[in-house]
Amino acid sequence: MAKIVTMGEIMLRLSTPGYQRFIQADSFDVNYGGGEANVAVSLANFGHSTYFVSKVPENPIGESAVTALRKYNVNCDFIARGGERLGIYYLEPGASMRASNVVYDRAHSSMAEAKEEDFDFDTVFEGADWFHLSGITPAISDGAAYLTELALKAAKEKGVTISMDFNYRKKLWSYEKANKVMTNLMQYVDVCIGSKEDAKYILGLTPVTTEKTGIEAEDYIYRDIFQQMMDRFGLKCIASTLRESYSASDNSWSACIYDGKEFYHSRKYEMRIVDRVGGGDSFAAGLICGLIEGKDIRESLEFAVAASALKHTIPGDVNLVTRREVENLMGGDASGRVQR
Amino acid sequence: MAKIVTMGEIMLRLSTPGYQRFIQADSFDVNYGGGEANVAVSLANFGHSTYFVSKVPENPIGESAVTALRKYNVNCDFIARGGERLGIYYLEPGASMRASNVVYDRAHSSMAEAKEEDFDFDTVFEGADWFHLSGITPAISDGAAYLTELALKAAKEKGVTISMDFNYRKKLWSYEKANKVMTNLMQYVDVCIGSKEDAKYILGLTPVTTEKTGIEAEDYIYRDIFQQMMDRFGLKCIASTLRESYSASDNSWSACIYDGKEFYHSRKYEMRIVDRVGGGDSFAAGLICGLIEGKDIRESLEFAVAASALKHTIPGDVNLVTRREVENLMGGDASGRVQR
Amino acid sequence: MAKIVTMGEIMLRLSTPGYQRFIQADSFDVNYGGGEANVAVSLANFGHSTYFVSKVPENPIGESAVTALRKYNVNCDFIARGGERLGIYYLEPGASMRASNVVYDRAHSSMAEAKEEDFDFDTVFEGADWFHLSGITPAISDGAAYLTELALKAAKEKGVTISMDFNYRKKLWSYEKANKVMTNLMQYVDVCIGSKEDAKYILGLTPVTTEKTGIEAEDYIYRDIFQQMMDRFGLKCIASTLRESYSASDNSWSACIYDGKEFYHSRKYEMRIVDRVGGGDSFAAGLICGLIEGKDIRESLEFAVAASALKHTIPGDVNLVTRREVENLMGGDASGRVQR
Amino acid sequence: MAKIVTMGEIMLRLSTPGYQRFIQADSFDVNYGGGEANVAVSLANFGHSTYFVSKVPENPIGESAVTALRKYNVNCDFIARGGERLGIYYLEPGASMRASNVVYDRAHSSMAEAKEEDFDFDTVFEGADWFHLSGITPAISDGAAYLTELALKAAKEKGVTISMDFNYRKKLWSYEKANKVMTNLMQYVDVCIGSKEDAKYILGLTPVTTEKTGIEAEDYIYRDIFQQMMDRFGLKCIASTLRESYSASDNSWSACIYDGKEFYHSRKYEMRIVDRVGGGDSFAAGLICGLIEGKDIRESLEFAVAASALKHTIPGDVNLVTRREVENLMGGDASGRVQR
Amino acid sequence: MAKIVTMGEIMLRLSTPGYQRFIQADSFDVNYGGGEANVAVSLANFGHSTYFVSKVPENPIGESAVTALRKYNVNCDFIARGGERLGIYYLEPGASMRASNVVYDRAHSSMAEAKEEDFDFDTVFEGADWFHLSGITPAISDGAAYLTELALKAAKEKGVTISMDFNYRKKLWSYEKANKVMTNLMQYVDVCIGSKEDAKYILGLTPVTTEKTGIEAEDYIYRDIFQQMMDRFGLKCIASTLRESYSASDNSWSACIYDGKEFYHSRKYEMRIVDRVGGGDSFAAGLICGLIEGKDIRESLEFAVAASALKHTIPGDVNLVTRREVENLMGGDASGRVQR
Amino acid sequence: MAKIVTMGEIMLRLSTPGYQRFIQADSFDVNYGGGEANVAVSLANFGHSTYFVSKVPENPIGESAVTALRKYNVNCDFIARGGERLGIYYLEPGASMRASNVVYDRAHSSMAEAKEEDFDFDTVFEGADWFHLSGITPAISDGAAYLTELALKAAKEKGVTISMDFNYRKKLWSYEKANKVMTNLMQYVDVCIGSKEDAKYILGLTPVTTEKTGIEAEDYIYRDIFQQMMDRFGLKCIASTLRESYSASDNSWSACIYDGKEFYHSRKYEMRIVDRVGGGDSFAAGLICGLIEGKDIRESLEFAVAASALKHTIPGDVNLVTRREVENLMGGDASGRVQR
């Protein structure tokens, strides 16, 4: 059981039930989540000692967010209280050719306006094995970007392995700013998760062009862009998920990984989607879980892909699957047959 | 922003939640809708000044129906009050090979028993650009058929463009009666929406036979039957949707149009169905929207097909999509990817 | 209208709504069902005079179970009262590659601990035409196994036709015990429903091996295993459903039957699953319905397959379809088109 | 266990949840009920063999109404199928000073348009002990009034005891018509339930005036008006409930009875109301239950008042209490203490 | 039908169902409301031509807020689009001795940050008869306070009658600031609604002390404080509601008014509370309705009190009662008896 | 922050929504609770370090129970896994004169069949300040009674203060058995909570008789019976709640306490009940909270009564109030006024 730290914003998610549009809804389903919080729940679920670092307002909405994490066994001792509000995102789940619609209302959140004195990173990273964060945290405010670097530095000094999931959000910051901030932060990163688009927009790298098509093309491009990232940032490994979005209801899902030596593309799953939010986060958690337990990159990747494929069948942001369920799926049984 | 008038019955729809059968239901979902009312909401949604002409009982159920339209910006000034009851239809949404089940309880409705004095058509059509109705309105009662002709005459005198969506309902009237009434009303119609079955049963035309199959056969037959309709009724254009019903859960959706010169078949969408009621009405609204704004028939048709494909992903009778969402889908993105 | 008797346990089913995991649920959907009870409801629905023999606790939960059957016209005069509790099964419906999860809590139920004096089998089978049970009833306890044989003997003496649906549940008993008990009970059975796995584990037969694949292989194996069963147990006919489980959301569904002379494989349906529990029971009911009404094995099988395909579109354990709906589907219309 | 027959209309009740107004409701709670149907369920609940005579449309809504009665053990063999529609009533439950709002949509119902040939009263009343109906049935249409008299005659000829609950509904018929029809029907009645207002409007009697107030005044007036009814119609006994409506949320509830010799006023209950619909019907059922079992008028009345007080705590039209619960309440325990 | 303008913020209200605490809620009930918006709906409901002036973000949440008003017939032509977010308030409805809990998250809302150029007050007040606002609007931001004065000036110049409901919110601003801003705005006000606490904290007046108790004391104090307000600000009339809060579930409700000549205290209602939010707003609307229609202050006050008592029985912020329902209650019938 | 240990069974509670009877329910509300578990949540809520000792089955239902406690900050490290099932209780909440109905299905639960080796009491009580349990735990099985004594011994040896809430359940064991077991266990108890009925039935004491009535009588009897308990068992203090059950909807609530010197009767609260389950447990928690923090018995009792009065307004078994809310209520404000 490793000690894993994640840091980021936890938000209130308000989603419409039954494929309703916002304008039809008389009630919203309530969930609490956010990129790094979702990773934390997944890792706690897989049995690791997981800590979430954040700040929430000192009111019942803030407490509800904390409770939602503690319920799933995430250690909340490093969540500060104070500030103005809990960030919100409104979600209208899509269906068929109608995409899910997300409306962010996260400005001025307690985490976006958190200060250095809210966190004691020395204590946070004491004895930690892994620190994970995503490109969303530095994007939410200049203060959060500053805090992110402080945390990364503190973790680095303690010899903690660091993973970064790019998660570029164009509604949060411009390419230029993302590029500047993230390129700097890359110096601390050991394991990186990011798509070719992330590499292009965040890191300013140029993906190779090819006449190949389909998966073959994807592999060709990813080998190249991962190599570029390796060359430039000296990472342990890089991974990306690959989603084919046939529609809002049906996707395929696989992933690829590169460690400087081997490039590996996982099994591909065909998915009927119940809730796709948090799919990428559950992949990051699965990958960390594999790597921290000493699995090789192939096995880690397959674990991550299977775990995150299952996430798409679960309502809410967080991935509530057991290790055994993931392993069963990896073992080949995607038939959905009942055991009784 | 054009002034568009529709006229028809608005009903209370009572549907079972969660694919329940009627016999299982402890609650019914409540929606208000009806062919022309659905068209009105769509057109109001696209920004046009839309009026609905109807009659509802002077009780809270009638008021609720009016409110449901006003909510979506339909002008309700020409909805009369009085009569006995609001028509009802019970809906049991289907799934897979089980078809949706509709039970009508619409006899004796306020609209079916409305009188000439309930409406002042001169005022209604003052300054109007377009008048739309469907074959359901004249079908609900002799009185409604009479009122329909009165309205058509009044509109015609004011130079209003008139569209008619056949919508043959065999539970409401016989072929003979439909044929007699509708053939007469065709003299007022400029734009017509109807399937080859409508043409056969309502207009008494004989679709050509062919050894072709699939879409090729459909196009062959529609070219011919549309030409017959053109020859006989001198229309501006005729359109029909084409639904392939693989099951109650999955359909394909496209449409064709003919203006006497060009026959055009739209792009085809594969749909996972959330709610198929009102699909045809949203197509009519999309087509009117395109034509009234001066788009050519191709663009009008593609707008109408995209709009109505999206309708199938929205619960309830009415199509709550924005113009931008329709244009995005027309622009090619049916992938259902989230923007964030 | 034949008199049909079924005997078994009725349980409270607690299932999570909206694809939630157990850990997420704030409410459970309540249904009452069980193998033979589900068969009884189907047969009552098709118009037969159907009796259910069981025992429930003398408390409101037991009464609710009885009420759930009576609602659908099953005669409950032979349901005894007493004992400790109503058995429960918790159900987490699956989606996509996530299988449904069933947690049984049925030990110590009133039916598992029922005694000989709870039932007067002479009265029960007076004038009965058919007695159906499944391999679940003898599996729930030694007492229930004993009662099962008592019932079978009594039925046999009255000349009642007897059908048995194997329904092997490895969570309830071992192969050895199942084999011993069931092999003995087979002496009473006329019509048998069971898969090749049931034949192997319950009856100890060895399915033939083949290099064929797909349906061809299935047919080859079933012909052989059915012949083995015929040879050994002298049955009137044997049938099995054939489910291809692409995922928890999508299955194909067909069935085969053998009467010693003809082996017949039914039409195959592609299903989007709303609720797969009770699919096999609704097949058994359909088959009994066909055979008891004197249909030949082909027609009986097609009726059974169509009926049970429809079951998969209905929430809950029981199959709430009309005879006409089944016949429409058999007649070829699986398009799910609305009639209106 | 006596054989009891009731006859009347069963309706679909659509009510708003959570004290919503009609205009706010996105769903309606579904119940099926009606004066005599509610009486039938109560009596079946108390263990009597109870039959309901009615007519419902041959569609799933009609079947659902029948199922709702069968669920609670009412014999539905004499419910005819056919006609146009199931009557509906919309209910907006009140709270505090806001009264419940009922909108009827029951014209043209199958029962209102039922014919003589729909029922075989000789079979219906064969072996019957009691026939109950209310003043609603003759009010719904001339045809229903005619059928009511046919049924009363047939029952009288078989020596069946007859009870009538006046239930004057001014929205259904005028005083004049009610008076004419009901005065004639009174010749068949043995036991009568009606308020002083019913006596005044339906029977044309003049209640005495008094300077007393409160319960004392009520008793004074009821003694007198009951005596007038006795004198004129020669009844076995007459009873009335007495409701003090402090608000839509809080009422008191008692009743009085007279058998020509003794006038008796029951215990009074203070009630927090969950659902007051069917309160009077559950009183009628309780009274019949007591009288048919040979209890004296005091005990019968106390049973009826306790049963119907409990009804006010149960959602829906029908009274789902056990005999033991009623007897406990009669025994004095209105404290609502949990037993455990 | 008078033209009435209100101006203020409309917020998203998220409330827990079934008396849940925030920490328990898996869904929030969705309503849209706010002081002045609630007044607008009430007045539209009573048949007046009512306009709401505000600003909402240009996203589906903003549109949903507008739609919620339009549904109830409020003219939304003067609602600007833009800015950052829609204000939110979280509501946990109380029960018994547990008070309702409100968490505001309204900072940075579109209305709080609206600019002069968002509104064309000349057009807004063209032909207007009445302008109503509350002390909440100037409290939400300096900008909003500035806009409030602009609006008041524009209205005054057009000769519009102006009403102000103090509604002091100590969570929004300090006494000092409230006092400074509001004292200045009082120069424009004709009709004032405010409690003695408002008078003390907002206007800096000193309520008289008395040894009287109960209603007598209230009347004594209100006569005095109203006179002070009259003397200082030269108003047409002043009114205040008087709530006795026995618990979160039960309150009494009355009001008093003074026009410089007569002091009048209304009838008092005992209320079981369904939803108390918006009670004061519905009182303001009722008072404006009475005064604008030329009723005297007594009748206006009784109308306002009855209307707002009824509001407490309706879920949500807005008062969905008809004029007739209010008049019935004024006429004395608070018994909650059903009419049928 | 004290370390507090509780030990007992946690059950799944299945309750009907909206005052439905069991027979009406299509869904059950899901909560997890039990006497000592409820106490644990309350104490965790007040900020103490609280541990729950129990055993749950190793399946998702067992995990859900654990999660429900962890959500509210109860330490679950001492909850063993294994055994057959989670105990269940079905709850039908009462209203007005209809009492809540509880159906237990808790036999054979994992906790009832837990073994000595499931718990390491030395570790459990290491550093503990307080151990609380109730008379339910020894009642559920002989094994549980044995474990209870083991735990009490271990706690006593570590010098932990021990409190016992009698909670006699006549459905679980006889007076004789309860008396024998509990009298023995009393040797370990320091603080006792129990009614005069508990004292009579469990301890075999004889309450004094008196001609006084009401609260005066209660105080007289409780002084006496508490003194008897003091004399016999040498306790630190004894307390009892006093519930006047006007109906299932309305109760009064107070409590009394005695420490050998002073007898004190608390303030009395009038309550509208949302959910009365867990009322007594929340009282126990409040009392422990006060005493462990060194408050005197008066203040501890007032805190306990206020906390538990608030519990009655919260759905579910557990008391989700903050310390500040309790203190506000103690401070006198039971008016339910909103702060905003």
UniProtKB/TrEMBL annotation, chains A, B, C, D, E, F:
InterPro entries: Carb_kinase_PfkB-like, PfkB_dom, Ribokinase-like. Residues 1-207, 257-316 form the Carbohydrate kinase PfkB domain. It comes from the Bacteria. Keywords: Kinase, Transferase. Pfam families: PfkB (PF00294). Coiled coil: none annotated. Belongs to the carbohydrate kinase PfkB family. This is 2-dehydro-3-deoxygluconokinase. It comes from Anaerocolumna jejuensis DSM 15929.
